[in-house]
């Protein structure tokens, strides 16, 4: 709840003996003051510095009524404003409070409090709103009931998200598209140097291999398909395998013996994949999966697989092209390059 009140403070007494009337703003357990054009002498105040001049009181009542109306019109948006935000808004110094700037400040405050999980969720909401509006400055006045209704509909649609990787300075975009054979006949927008897959059905995995092989053969541009990293898991175990889609020329080395090909997972482990077809573990995207597989099997595989990629990107060399993980036995078995 926000409050505004006309006040006079001894600390704001000027050298000529007059006092400047302030509007005190109280919000979110913080207070601020707004200057007014009114200056009063001691005769216009009582001994407690309360205003007794009727004309000034009438003028201030108009100002306070206007402020209170403005605060009421903010509605739920008021909850997202700090005391300083509200003070600046009432003063007219920043008529359009930047919601993105506020969110960034709020997320940083959550991180300082050690609430990293909540900060991460709020950061996702901020990024989603930036995608929706198509700009990184959003006025608080633009967030209303009609906008939220359209935003909810937008969230349910297929959409493209563009991000900048802050470490490497590279950009990426996410697009909801069914990965099927028709993609191999489309533009290079559907190709990528590295493809990461995580599917439940063996047939789907073999179909992905067929699509990627076709794309690698047909397209030879900058984003030519070169690598495929495949994730798979059962109840307590799983594997991650990095394959090449064609021969990749390697630099000469006196210390190592480089190889230009990593076998496709569907070729090297074909029998293993087919043998696992009978596994009835539900999709990891379903709540039912939590009752039939270990809670952390997916995150454990994701982290180890990301570490494999990190080594490839950072060091430019791999001694293992995948691994098997058994979470029940806390054992990881690397797949050596040979």
Notable characteristics:
single chain, 338 residues, alpha+beta, 3 domains, 5-stranded mixed sheet, 3-stranded antiparallel sheet, 9 helices, 10 strands
How would you describe what is shown here?
This protein has 338 residues and is of the alpha+beta class. It folds into 3 domains: 3-91, no CATH class; 99-158, no CATH class; 177-336, no CATH class. 35% of the residues lie in helices and 20% in strands. It has helices at residues 54-74, 83-91, 99-112, 116-133, 145-155, 202-218, 265-268, 270-275, 297-315; strands spanning 3-7, 19-27, 30-40, 160-164, 171-175, 194-198, 227-233, 237-244, 320-326, 331-336. It has a 5-stranded mixed beta sheet with strand order 6-7-8-9-10, with helices on both faces. It has a 3-stranded antiparallel beta sheet with strand order 1-2-3, with helices on one face. The longest helix has 21 residues, at 54-74. The protein is elongated. The N and C termini lie far apart (68 Å). The model has no long low-confidence stretch (mean pLDDT 85).
């Amino acid at each position: 709840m926000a409050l505004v009140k006309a006040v006079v403070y001894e600390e704001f007494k000027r050298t000529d003996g007059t006092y400047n009337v302030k509007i005190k703003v109280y919000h979110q357990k913080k207070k601020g003051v707004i200057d007014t054009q009114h200056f009063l002498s001691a005769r216009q105040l009582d001994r407690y510095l309360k205003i007794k001049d009727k004309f000034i009181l009438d003028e201030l009542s108009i100002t306070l009524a206007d402020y209170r109306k403005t605060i009421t019109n903010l509605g739920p948006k008021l909850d997202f404003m700090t005391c300083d935000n509200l003070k600046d808004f009432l003063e007219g110094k920043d008529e359009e409070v930047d919601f993105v700037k506020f969110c960034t400040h709020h997320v940083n405050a959550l991180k300082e409090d050690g609430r990293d999980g909540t900060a991460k969720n709020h950061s996702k909401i901020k990024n989603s709103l930036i995608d929706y509006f198509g700009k990184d400055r959003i006025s608080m006045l633009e967030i209303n009931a009609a906008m939220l209704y359209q935003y909810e509909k937008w969230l349910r649609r297929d959409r493209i998200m563009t991000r900048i990787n802050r470490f490497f300075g590279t950009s990426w975009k996410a697009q909801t598209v069914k990965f099927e054979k028709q993609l191999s006949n489309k533009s290079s927008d559907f190709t990528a140097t590295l493809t990461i897959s995580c599917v439940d059905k063996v047939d789907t995995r073999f179909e992905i291999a067929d699509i990627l092989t076709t794309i690698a053969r047909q397209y030879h541009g900058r984003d030519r398909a070169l690598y495929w990293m495949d994730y798979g898991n059962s109840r307590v175990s799983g594997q991650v395998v990095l394959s090449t889609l064609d021969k990749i020329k390697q630099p000469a080395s006196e210390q190592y013996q480089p190889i230009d090909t990593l076998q496709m997972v569907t070729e090297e482990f074909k029998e293993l994949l087919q043998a696992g077809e009978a596994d009835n573990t539900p999709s990891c995207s379903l709540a039912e999966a939590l009752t039939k597989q270990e809670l952390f099997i997916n995150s454990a595989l994701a982290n180890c697989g990301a570490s494999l990629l990190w080594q490839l990107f950072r060091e430019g060399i791999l001694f293992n092209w995948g691994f098997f993980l058994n979470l029940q036995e806390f054992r990881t078995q690397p797949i050596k390059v040979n």
